[in-house]
Design brief:
about 300 residues; 2,3-Dihydroxybiphenyl 1,2-Dioxygenase, domain 1; 8-stranded mixed beta sheet; 6 helices; about 35% strand; globular; binds (2E,4E)-2-hydroxy-6-oxohepta-2,4-dienoic acid; binds fe (iii) ion
Length: about 300
């Protein structure tokens, strides 16, 4: 399979209350690399093995949560294709000129049925991963990989009322596959939907919530369970508020830790999970197994995990 169309969540903009305490959390503690200085009310970060200029944007605000997220798509022509397909689907598509977002080509923007603002772009300038493209070697210079040793931004989980409409849109317009779903065992209501357009168990997921435009977490990929434990050591050392200490999801089979940034936004560091292909069957969990689906080491569902969103 060649991956074409939407490649990955290439950018997430998270709202934070205070820029300096957020810089301490995301820059010093998590160890993301700050790559661009422009507006003093924003910080731009990337993980160690990302080539594009930035993937996480923090924006100062008096409200926490997600401002927008953006998928990177394979080619510039995809933007015209998705513009037409989204318009036919009934969404209003806005056009954003190149350069409005730093180092970025043109974008399209629209509102999902769940209320979230989504963008698509094809071009972003590269800053590299600290290694040359010819004879790159295997690790960058010492000091480049810091803190929790994040490799890259991996996925986001968003909350809303209309997650079945999002599911339909991602399947029909973006040609994504439902990798896993969590349903109510009583009435089969879809409670969470995991979607992939790649070899990962999910690129994005949606969880049913009483209100729209909610943010559950942004997730960063680590290399190993050793690095996950190292992240846990740092979280303890610096007394970062923890939601869930090391465990393994049943859904996606990733090993995970959840913690909160100083504005109450949930962060995840994770490693592992299975390889997904377009012919991999959809897996369904029901709420008789809610504990195992969410946290399979102790099979205990957590109320905070299911109900605390920004
Ligand atoms: C993840 C993940 C739920 C599971 C979430 C799983 C909401 O975030 O990274 O695998 O049940
Ligand atoms: Fe996750």
């Amino acid at each position: 399979m060649a991956i074409r169309g939407l490649l990955r969540v290439g950018e997430v903009c998270v709202r934070v209350f205070d820029i300096e305490e957020s810089r301490r959390h995301y820059g010093e503690r998590i160890g993301l690399i700050e790559t661009y200085q422009g507006d003093p009310d924003k910080i731009y970060y990337k993980g160690s093995d990302e080539h594009d200029w930035y993937s996480l944007v923090l924006k100062k605000s008096d409200k926490s949560g997600v401002e927008y997220f953006a998928f990177k798509t394979h080619s510039d022509a995809d933007l015209d294709h998705f513009d037409r397909a989204l318009t036919e689907y009934g969404l209003v598509v806005e056009h954003i000129e190149p350069g409005v977002y730093p180092k970025s080509g043109r974008r399209i923007q629209f509102k999902l049925p769940s209320g979230h603002i989504m963008q698509i772009y094809a071009e972003k300038e590269r800053i590299g991963n600290g290694m040359p493209l010819r004879n790159p070697g295997t690790i960058p210079d010492e000091g480049y990989i810091r803190g929790m040793r994040v490799i890259r931004l991996d996925h986001i989980l968003l909350g809303g009322t209309d997650i079945v409409a999002n599911r339909d849109l991602f399947k029909s317009v973006f040609d994504m596959t439902v990798s896993e779903e969590l349903i109510s065992h009583e009435d089969e209501t879809r409670l969470a939907v995991f979607l992939t357009g790649s070899n990962k168990p999910h690129d994005i997921a949606f969880v049913l919530q009483p209100t729209g435009s909610r943010f559950h977490h942004v997730s960063f990929l680590l290399e190993s369970v050793n690095d996950l434990f190292h992240a846990g050591d740092l979280i303890g050392k610096y007394e970062i508020p923890v939601d869930i200490s090391p465990n393994r999801h049943g859904v996606t089979r990733g090993a995970t830790i959840y913690f909160f940034d100083p504005s109450g936004n949930r962060n995840e560091v994770f490693t592992g999970g299975y390889v997904h292909y377009p012919d991999t069957p959809t897996l369904t969990w029901d709420t008789t197994q809610l504990g195992k689906a969410t946290f399979s080491h102790d099979n205990l569902p957590r109320d905070s995990f299911l109900n605390v969103l920004t």
